């Protein structure tokens, strides 16, 4: 997936486009499928062809939806989904990481026989 499409606005736009495509194709098929009182064989054949084309278009839209779902799963799994990123969240994470690093350094300093460089002649 293109990195420009990894934000909430692009994903919403993609979903809205797919939903619009589904509904437009469905409406078009319903309009075609209306019964005519004086239908002949050529009109019936034309309607049948148009309905088959509409069905193929709906199947294509469903396949696009499946690809979108797969892309979202990959983004979620590999951490590339950029919808919840916030600068404040990153700063909080940095503070937590720094605190954990200080605690680990403190614990390492308390282990007997393990000193900092320069303290034990190393």
TrEMBL record:
Family designation: Belongs to the Mediator complex subunit 22 family.
Can you supply one Gene Ontology CC term for this chain's record?
A: mediator complex
Q: What protein name is recorded for this chain?
A: Mediator of RNA polymerase II transcription subunit 22
Localization per Swiss-Prot or TrEMBL: Nucleus
Q: Which domain of life is it from?
A: Eukaryota
Pfam families, per database record: Med22
Classification of source organism: Eukaryota, Fungi, Dikarya, Ascomycota, Pezizomycotina
The UniProt keyword set, sorted, is:
Nucleus, Transcription, Transcription regulation
Instruction: Kindly list the GO molecular function terms attached to this UniProt entry.
Output: transcription coregulator activity
Provide one Gene Ontology biological process annotation.
regulation of transcription by RNA polymerase II
Source organism of the structure: Pseudopithomyces chartarum
């Amino acid at each position: 997936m293109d990195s420009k499409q990894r934000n909430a606005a692009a994903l919403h736009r993609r979903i809205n486009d797919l939903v619009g495509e589904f509904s437009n194709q469905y409406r078009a098929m319903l309009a075609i499928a209306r019964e005519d009182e004086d239908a002949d064989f050529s009109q019936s054949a034309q309607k049948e062809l148009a309905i088959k084309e509409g069905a193929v278009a709906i199947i294509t839209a469903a396949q696009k939806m499946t690809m979108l779902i797969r892309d979202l799963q990959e983004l979620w799994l590999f951490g590339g989904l950029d919808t919840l990123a916030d600068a404040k969240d990153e700063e909080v994470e940095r503070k937590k990481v720094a605190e954990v690093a200080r605690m680990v350094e403190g614990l390492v300093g308390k282990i007997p026989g393990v000193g900092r460089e320069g303290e034990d002649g190393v």
